[in-house]
Model the fold of this input.
Amino acid sequence: MAYEIPVTQARAELADLINRVVYGGERVVVTRHGKPLVALVSAADLEQLEGEEAAAEEQVISSDSSIGSAPSAHGDLQRFGIAAVHRGHGDPDAWRPDA
Done:
């Protein structure tokens, strides 16, 4: 859990807060009117967070790119074991799986 401190107090104690983060391994959340405003984290924590963010973005991009590859109608016919399709009698616009 992070140490919370109001912004007015954080201004006066900035050097101490930096030491707590760097040497004590703490995370400090600066609040305004009781609501989180900013967080002080070590550079190592920031690198880890950014690495996790980049990995999550890559995962979204790779899963999104796989969505666009829908199987063809012909592929569906094979997948469901359909061997023949009625093409209509003399209808040149009848649906064809190989079109």
